[in-house]
Every structure is written in structure tokens, then in C-alpha cells.
Specification:
It contains 22 helices and 18 strands. It is of the alpha+beta class and 531 residues long. It is globular and about 75 Å long.
Amino acid sequence: MELLDCKNFKEMILSGANNLANNAERVNKLNVFPVPDGDTGTNMNMTMASAAEETAKFMNDYIGDTCKFLSKNMLMNARGNSGVILSQVFKGIAKSLAGVQSADVKQLAEAFLNGSRAAYKAIMKPVEGTILTVVRESAEMGEYLVKKNPKCSIEDYMAYMVVEANESLKRTPELLEVLKEAGVLDSGATGYCCILEGFNAFLQGKPVTRAEQGQADEQAEEGYCVEIVVNLNEQYKKEFVINRLETSLGRSCNSIKIARVDDSVKLHVHSERPGDIINTLQRFGDLDTVNVAKLSKGHNPTLNFETASEERKNCAVITVCNAEGIASKFKELAVDYIVFGGQTMNPSTQDFVNAIREANANNIIILPNNSNIILAAKQAKQLAKNCHVEVIESRSVIEGINACINYSPDVEIEDNIRSMSQAIGDIRTISLTQAVKNTTMNGLKIRKNNYIGLLDKDLVATGKALDKTLLATIDRAAQDAEISYLTIIYGKEITKAQAQQILDYAEEKFDAEGELIAGQQDLYPYIIGVE
């Protein structure tokens, strides 16, 4: 093949996305930390899958326009650091192919090289031994092949790229000590190799398919259009969050539209089980309007989803968490909008764009509360219009809470940024969970299902007993600095009495004070802030 036309480009992208989807769980298991929220494969798949499917339907014969469409969709779907980096790679590719109808091998090689440049540019402190390295080295070697053999085919170029990408992947442990110690390859880089292998498979006449592909759309066409207006009850007048309902319905429904006007919520959704949707909405209050109709092609909402504009605030705070108890604490601290997400379900760029719109403020502060969410929040900041957005790089809900304690809606945003950023630096986070695999880290031999204690990003303790492992982690934190105050967020499986025993230990041993918060979080029995 001398030219890659738009039709083949779309099929190539779909094959790459399918191969990534088929290997997402394998990529997840490569996570360096043996924690139950290794979700690199999931994030990359969610970034690319729906974007690839929508691109396959995009009616355009120009590869440049089609790649731009793909890039925009990936940008909005991007989740997690690897997902954001992947979206930036395709942003660079799209920019290089702008205006191109069909790409020759030289243009393709230049596009992938530009994709690498865009990815590096998006990261303030690029780390080698990650997806960045594999993207760059494979693109550089692809360019080398084309310069050496200008008449090579598209198929030869991509086959060469796959070989070089996998060779680069094998070298990642040599560049990143934490990979070498854990005995794994970089997960994001592995995901990228899966995409290239899918591209190559299509070009070799063996496109990768997914058994479940297209089923959701087919089910929706055979289902029902459900439209509901619900008047919120007193509880949900305060607690209802559009993003949380969208996430819940998104597991089984299509064409979801939700809008809130004062104390009413309007919903339009396509579902095979309309009764389930009605039952779900009844939890929030009294049903004012219910319309259920057999789904037909071209069906559009009959409800008006344009919300009345409210008075614009001067400043608003958006924060991320995935547990009701933690969300309640943030609401006590004057947080305006909560994006539900965190471990195992990183919110997308689109989730933050929606939150920025809903917050309706001149100045907005975003607290991601997870290192794997920061890039998506920053990407949303770049897309924000008609408001000033700042992202404070909080890496845990503990840091987010401490930042919000130092927030005041009545002061200038610059002063809030300064005081909230300082508050994040004044606290450390202890996290306790169970290991999902055997590994070695920081000289500790980790056994699957044993408890592990993390101090910020460092794994510092492990053992069979929950309390013993947690107390060892607290003692380790005390070696670095005197402990005077603990914020103990205890999870669903922990009682208040059990959490109180931990606080009593710290009060007696370190003469510290503290606070207990019933976080109701899964996976992590304890998340503790130490000051």
C-alpha cells in the first residue's frame, strides 16, 4: 500500500482500539503498585474505544479531518495519565495530517513523530521508561526506516514500528528502577504496543475484532426511550449530582441526557429495561412526568434540556471523590461540585468540562485528589471558556480536604491558591489496602491479599494483620516528622470503634489529637492524614 486512504485509516484505528480492549485487563495487571486500583488498561481503553467507534461512522473522505475528529473525541474521553498522554499523541498526529486526504508513508512517519513531540510537550516532567519513551523511540525508528527506504510500503512501515515499539518496551525496566524491582514492563507502554499491533494486524489483512462490539447500539435500537421529570426530595435537593447518575446509568444505557432546573431533574435515556430507570429515579423524589416509547430511528428528546442560567458565582471549588462519606465532608467545607471518581474509575476530561460548566463561576479551583487524575483536570482547564480555572495538584482526598479547610469564597482566587497549595504541602497521606499480587517493592516482599501500608507514594509496611500493618505505617510516618494531628477516614468495613482505637493509639504514643470521618470508601479500609 502506497497511500493510506480514509476508509483504511478508520478500519486501522478500529483494529488498534479492539486489540487494546482485548488486552486491557492484561495491561491493568502490569501496574507497578500491587494495589486494587491498577487501571491503566481500563483508562486507555475508555479513552480510545468509543472515539474509534464514532470515528468509524464519521462521514468524511479526508484522513486529516477524520484524524482530527478522532483526536477531539479521545481528548474528551481521556482518563488517567496514560489516557491523556495517548490523546495527546493522536492530537499531534492529527495536527501533522491536517488537510491531507490520503497519507503516504513519509507523511505517516512524520505524523507519528509529531505525536511523540505533542505527548512530551504535554508533560511538565517527562519520565523515561514509560509510554512516552516507547512512543518516541518507535516513531524515531519508523522515520529512520522511511529515510533509509523512501519507497517502503505502509505495511512495511507499521510492521517495523511494532517490532521497534516492543523492543523499546523490553527496555523500560532498564530506565525505571521501580519497574525493574517489581519485575514488570511499563503498563502504559504495553497498552500503546497493543494499539500498534492492532494497526499492523489490519494492514496485514487480519483486523482485530471484539465480540461485544456494537451490541450496546443494537440493544438500544431494540429498547425504549425513557423521559422522566422528577421533583427532588429534601435530601437530594442538597445531594443530587448529575455526574454520579450519568456514571451509574452509563453502564447499561445509551443517549443519556440529564439536566437540573431548580429542584427538578429532567432525564432522557435509551434502555432495554425502562422499569429499572423509573425505579432508579423514584429514589430521588416524586415523578412528575414519565414518558416511555418504543425506540425508533432518529428519535429525539421531547424534553427541553436547556437549563435556566443562574447567577454566576465569583469562585467555586470542584473536587473528586468516590464515597458518600467523603463527599459529605467536602460539602461541609463549601465545595460547590463533586466529580465522583478516584481509584478504579478515573473521571474523564469531559467529566471535568461538564463540572466546570455546572459550577457556573468566574473563577474555578479543581482538586483532582489523585495523581492519575491531574492530567485530565489540566486538559479540561485548557478547554474551559469564559472562566478562569486553576488546578491544585492534590494527590489524595486527605490533601483535598486539607486544602478545602483553607479555602474561603470571599477572598481573591490567588490568595486561595496560595493558602490551599501550602495546606497540601503540610500534610502526608497514609493509605491501607490489600495487595492484589506477589511482588517486591522498597525491599519488602509483598504477598497477594496481605495488607500494605503506603505513606504518600511509598510502600512502607506489609503484613497479614490489618491493625498491625496500619500502626507500623503510622510509626514510619512519625520517623520523618512529629505527629500532632490525624484525620482518619475509615471505610465501609471498619466500625467507628475500630477507628477510635487507632486514634487512641496515636493520642497515647504521640500525644496527638485527631478527627474521625466515616468515609464509606471501598478498597481502602483507612485513609489517614498526618500532620
